[in-house]
Amino acid sequence: MLAYWYFNKNLRRAGFHGRMSLSGSQIRRLRGLARRWSRFWLRWGGTGLVGRLASRFAAWTAPPHLGQVSLAYLTPRGYIDADATLYHSDLRLGQNVYVAPGVLIFEHGGGGAVTLADKVAIHRGAVLETGKAGYISIGAESSIHPGCQLKAYIEPILIGEGVMIAANAALYSYDHGMDPDLPIRRQPITAKAPITIGNGAWIGTGVIILSGVTIGDGAVVGAGSVVTRDIPAGAIAVGNPARVIRYRKDLKLAGKVDEQQ
Ligand SMILES: CC(C)(COP(=O)(O)OP(=O)(O)OC[C@H]1O[C@@H](n2cnc3c(N)ncnc32)[C@H](O)[C@@H]1OP(=O)(O)O)[C@@H](O)C(=O)NCCC(=O)NCCS
Q1: Nearest residue CA, atom 25 of ligand 1?
Q2: What is the pTM of this model?
Q3: pLDDT tens digits for range 152-208
Q4: Ligand 1 contact, 104 CB (< 6 A)
Q5: 125 dihedral zone (left: phi>0; alpha: psi -120 to 50; beta)
Q6: Which domains, ranges and CATH numbers included, belong to the chain?
Q7: Which residue has the CA at smallest separation from atom 44 of ligand 1?
Q8: Which of 245, 257, 258, 261 to mutate to test ligand 1, by most ligand atoms within 8 A of the CB atom?
Q9: How far apart are CA 49 and CA 96, in angstroms?
Q10: How many Å apart are CA 86 and CA 109, to the nearest integer?
Q11: CA 17, 22, 26, 27: dihedral to nearest 10 degrees?
C-alpha cells in the first residue's frame, strides 16, 4: 500500500498520467525513482527479520532474476532475498553480497562457517551446506549459479576470487564409507582432502567435483565434466573423468565475441 502511494505520488510528479508511451528521459526518471526506492529500503538490509522485510520492499521495483543482482551494490549491506533460507549460526558476509530467492544455506551437526566475501553472488536455488567441521569459503566477486550444490563435510570447500561456477554444478568434499559388511547408510562419511578452486577459474554447467580435488587458478572445466583429479592452473579440462585438452595460453580468440562484456 505504502509502495503504491509512494510510486503514484512520484510518478505524477515525474509527469506520468494514466497510460502513455514514455520518452527516454521519463524512463530514466522512472529508473532513478526505482533505484531510490530500493536504496531507501536496503539501508536496513541484512539477514534478520527487518533485513528480509527491507529486501522484500526493495525488490518490488527491480526486475526479476539477474535484474536483482545490482540491488546488492546499492548499499554495502548487499541484498539478501526475503525468500532465501538461512539456517546457519556462522554465516559471514562481506560487503555487497547477493543472495537470491530460493537459496538454502544450511548448517548440519558440527558444521563450520560459511564465508561469502565482498561482491559474492549466490543465485537462485543454490544449496550451501556444512557439517562435521566442514566449512565453505567463497572469495570476492565469485558467483555460484542457479541450482549448484556445495556440500562441505569433514573437509572444506575453498573457492578463490572471481570464480564462476555455472548452473547445477555439484561439489562434495566427502564420500560415504563403503565397507562391504555394512549398509552404506550406516557407515561414517569419509573425506580425502579439501576441494580447492583457484582464483578466476570457470566451472561449466553440470560439473561434478569430488573430494580432495584442486583446480588451479584460471582453469576451465567443460560442461558436464566429472573432476576426480587435480587440474593445473590455466588448463582446459573436459569429460568424465576430466582430462586436460589444452591450455588457455595456447588459445587463439575464435568464435563470436560479445563486445559489451
Ligand atoms: C570447455 C569448453 C569451454 C571448450 O570449448 P572449446 O575450446 O571451444 O572446445 P572445442 O569445442 O574445440 O572441443 C575440443 C574437444 O573437447 C571436446 N569437448 C568440449 N567440451 C566438452 C565437454 N564439456 N565435455 C566433453 N568433451 C568436450 C570436444 O568434443 C572436442 O573433442 P574432439 O577434439 O575429440 O572433437 C566448452 O566446450 C564448454 O564445455 N563450455 C562450458 C559451457 C558452460 O557451461 N556454460 C555456462 C555459462 S556460465
Answers
A1: 239
A2: 0.91
A3: 999 999 999 999 999 999 999 999 999 999 999 999 999 999 999 999 999 999 999
A4: no
A5: left
A6: 1-76 (no CATH), 83-260 (2.160.10.10)
A7: 204
A8: 245
A9: 19
A10: 15
A11: 120
